[in-house]
Every structure is written in structure tokens, then in C-alpha cells.
Automatic annotation (TrEMBL):
Name of this chain's protein: Scamp family-domain-containing protein
Biological process (GO), any one: protein transport
Residue ranges, compositional bias (Low complexity): 92-104
TM region positions: 170-190, 202-221, 233-255, 275-301
Superkingdom to which the source organism belongs: Eukaryota
GO cellular component, one term: trans-Golgi network membrane
Ranges of biased composition (kind: Basic and acidic residues): 105-121
Length: 352
């Protein structure tokens, strides 16, 4: 009787099964090549080793553990059908050497811009410090100070000359309209027979003294002063509009069309033709002032426009400045209205 606790016999230890398994064992080749002519696996070792032509054309290099896997000389070179090797890959072109030079150029440009920003920030800080130290209160106009203006304290050093000439241009315009009123007054009281619009010219010139002096200051001089002080595109844009109109108006008055209030060239020719020398000399000075004021204003307009372009200002920037200022004004007025409403409601609740 057999032992029930004994290990069962292995069926594969049967001699018939073992001989059958050994007869079906396939011998794999020692090497497998990824060559097109030998893509199929070689099953017969004797056939693989017996091909002397093929084995003679292939050289087997031993593997070195110390070799550099990333070097070009140690890379595996694929074999062609004839047993020849393909050329090794070409090294990188010299274009990579231009990359460090380009990066250094960009780095130098960034450093230059950084230095410029630091200089501008330092100049702005110095100007603000001088402004705080020197400002004592409103100083313009001298007879009745309403606002503060100081070219040396508020305008950058490189733009002080242009702003000074703009101020002189505005003063020249004031002198011109004053002398124009005096010339029209002379013509009115000399009463030449050929000049019939003397009263109208004097009335218009007298009105111009009061209106155009204020309009010229607030419409084009003050905006260009703020533009050079703050470098805001909106102020430049306002100056270009109103100072352009101002230049056209000055040359229009220099012509001297009757009933326009301008002691200009037409009135000058009429007076000298009739022999009114005294009034003619006064009108001659007025005409010269009109022409000088117009050419000076046009020259300063050109210089300001060149500075505007060199600083990189654009019309789109001026539009954005205008929109931002309108939005700020709207928010500020809304906040004031809300605060006033809250105060009124709180006062009403107190008396309830």
C-alpha cells in the first residue's frame, strides 16, 4: 500500500517525455544582427558560422566599460548590406558659437537700458527734491499769483532751453497783441480817408488783448509746459492742436485784412500809399511783430514735434491718457457723491 503523504511523482520525469522534449530544443544564434540581409533569425549555428564570406566582412569590437557612451568615436555605426559602415554623424555647425555672442549683445542692451532708467530716476528725484526745497507758494502771474511755475525746478535740464523759448514766444505774443491795439488806436485817431474800418479794427484788437492772452496761456503754453515736465502724450497732443491754430491765426493777423483787428500788411500799404507816415511806421512795427511771432511759434512747434517723436509718444498713448483721466474723474465724482449721500442719510437718521 502506497504512502498517501508521499510527494506525487513528476509526470515530466518520464523517460519518453524527456526524450521528446530534448528532440525539439532549438539552438539560438549567439549574435543577432539587425542587417537587412540577415533580418530573419538564424536557426542553424553551423550555417551561421559556416558563411566565411559574411563573417570575414564583419569585425566585432569588444565593449569597454570605461568608454564614453556620448562621444562620437564610441557610437555604434550601422552596417550596410555590403558590410561597409556609414559615415559618422557630422558635428554641430559653428552657428552655435553665435548664440553666446547674441546673448551677450542682448545682455549689454539690457544693461544700457537699465543705466538709462537709473539716470532718469535719479534726475527725477533730484528735480523733485529741488521742487520741494524751492517752492514757497504760487508765483505766477507776479501781480496776482494763481499757480506755481519754475522752469529751473520743474523742467528737466535737457528741455529747459526749449521751454524757456516757449515762454518767450508767449510773451512775444502778448507784446504783439498789445502793440497791435496801439497801432489800431493810432489809425483810428489819425483817420485816414482810405481807412474806413478804423473803429472796428480798434474794438477787435482791444478785445483780443484780454481774451487771447488768457486763451494762449491755458490752451497751448500751459499744456506744453506740463508735457515737458511730466512727459505725457495728452499734453503734447493738446499743444499741437491749439498751437497749430495759434500759428495760423498769427499769420492771418499779419496779413491785415480790414475789420479783423489786425494791423498788418494790407493796412500798412494803404497808409504809406496815402502818405500817412506816422501811422504807417506804427503799423509797420506791428506787422513785423506779427511775422516774428509767427515764425518763432512755427520753429518751436517743429522742435517740440521732433522731441515728441524722439521720446516715442504716439496718438494711441494720448487716447489712453485721456480715457484714464476721464475714468479717474468719474470714479472720483462717484466717490464724492456717495460720501455726500451717506452724510445726508446719517444726518437725517440723527434727527429722526
Amino acid at each position: 500500500m502506497s504512502n498517501p503523504f508521499e510527494d506525487p511523482s513528476n509526470p515530466f520525469e518520464d523517460p519518453s517525455i524527456t526524450s521528446a522534449l530534448q528532440s525539439h530544443v532549438r539552438t539560438e544564434p549567439a549574435y543577432q544582427l539587425s542587417d537587412e540581409l540577415h533580418h530573419n533569425k538564424v536557426t542553424d549555428k553551423s550555417a551561421f558560422l559556416g558563411d566565411s564570406d559574411y563573417t570575414s566582412s564583419i569585425s566585432f569590437h569588444p565593449y569597454s566599460e570605461r568608454s564614453d557612451l556620448y562621444s562620437v568615436s564610441q557610437q555604434t555605426i550601422p552596417l550596410t548590406a555590403a558590410g561597409t559602415s556609414t559615415p559618422p554623424p557630422k558635428p554641430l555647425s559653428s552657428g552655435g558659437a553665435a548664440l553666446p555672442s547674441a546673448l551677450s549683445a542682448k545682455e549689454e542692451e539690457l544693461r544700457r537700458k537699465e543705466r538709462e532708467l537709473e539716470e532718469r530716476e535719479r534726475a527725477l528725484q533730484e528735480r523733485q527734491d529741488n521742487f520741494v526745497l524751492r517752492r514757497q507758494g504760487n508765483n505766477f502771474p507776479p501781480c496776482f499769483p494763481l499757480l506755481y511755475m519754475d522752469i529751473q525746478a520743474e523742467i528737466p535740464r535737457e528741455n529747459q532751453e526749449v521751454v524757456t523759448w516757449l515762454y518767450r514766444s508767449w510773451l512775444t505774443f502778448l507784446v504783439t497783441i498789445l502793440w497791435n491795439c496801439v497801432a489800431c488806436f493810432f489809425v483810428l485817431f489819425s483817420h485816414p480817408p482810405s481807412v474806413t474800418q478804423g473803429p472796428a479794427d480798434f474794438g477787435v484788437s482791444l478785445t483780443t488783448v484780454f481774451t487771447h492772452s488768457l486763451l494762449s496761456f491755458f490752451l497751448w503754453y500751459r499744456p506744453v509746459y506740463n508735457a515737458y515736465m511730466k512727459e505725457v502724450s495728452l499734453y503734447y497732443f493738446l499743444y499741437f492742436i491749439f498751437n497749430g491754430i495759434h500759428v495760423l491765426y498769427v499769420f492771418y493777423m499779419a496779413v491785415g485784412i480790414p475789420s479783423t483787428g489786425g494791423a498788418g500788411l494790407i493796412l500798412l500799404i494803404t497808409l504809406f500809399s496815402d502818405g500817412w507816415l506816422m501811422s504807417g511806421v506804427v503799423v509797420l512795427i506791428a506787422s513785423g511783430l506779427w511775422l516774428c511771432t509767427g515764425f518763432l511759434a512755427a520753429w518751436l512747434f517743429k522742435r517740440t514735434y521732433d522731441h515728441y517723436k524722439a521720446a516715442g509718444h504716439t496718438f494711441g498713448e494720448a487716447k489712453r491718457d485721456a480715457y484714464s483721466r476721464m475714468a479717474t474723474t468719474a470714479v472720483r465724482s462717484g466717490a464724492v457723491d456717495h460720501a455726500a449721500g451717506m452724510y445726508v442719510r446719517s444726518e437725517g437718521d440723527r434727527f429722526v
